[in-house]
Backbone:
């Protein structure tokens, strides 16, 4: 079996070096995911751009966490669930929300539960959600913008979840306290 290289700013392809510097500037380190993505400068740049755009959506921190962790848990990403747990805690997201997402249980907030159900339905049904699901989403207070932005955030998570699952990305030290695995 061939393993993926976790690049450093010294070993990375030339076009990835400034992108890894951005990772250091933002996170104080090069997350292993970014080190793996550095093999392809286009992939790392796309991921960093989507990460920035996800944070510019109309979602609150809790809502963004619902999409990030909901998709990551559904994909069984043992890298992203711990990473987004740490990020959610850092952002001050309620512990009950984080726990429910990690355990794939109903959320303690009805509006967030509708967001999670809609997100996972879009994911699992390849965007073909029912009229009743769409109506429930809008009745919960969400808009067309939110529906579109679920797709934006989901694209970011699909990139990282798939790459982490393919590469078997080892967990970074700051995320090890939040280790997680899918109970299938």
Residues:
């Amino acid at each position: 079996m061939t393993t993926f290289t976790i690049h450093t700013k010294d070993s990375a392809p030339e076009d990835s070096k400034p992108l890894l510097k951005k990772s250091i500037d933002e996170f104080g380190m090069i997350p292993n995911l970014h080190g793996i993505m550095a093999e392809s400068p286009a992939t790392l740049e796309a991921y960093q751009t989507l990460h920035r755009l996800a944070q510019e959506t109309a979602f609150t921190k809790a809502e963004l966490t619902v999409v990030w962790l909901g998709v990551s848990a559904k994909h069984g990403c043992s890298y992203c669930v711990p990473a987004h747990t740490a990020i959610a805690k850092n952002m001050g997201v309620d512990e009950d929300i984080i726990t429910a997402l990690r355990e794939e249980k109903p959320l303690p907030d009805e509006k967030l539960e509708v967001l999670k159900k809609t997100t996972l339905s879009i994911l699992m049904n390849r965007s073909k959600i029912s009229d009743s699901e769409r109506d429930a989403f809008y009745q919960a207070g969400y808009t067309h913008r939110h529906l579109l932005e679920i797709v934006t955030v989901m694209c970011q998570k699909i990139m990282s979840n798939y790459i982490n699952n393919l590469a078997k990305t080892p967990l970074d030290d700051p995320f090890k306290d939040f280790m997680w695995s899918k109970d299938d």
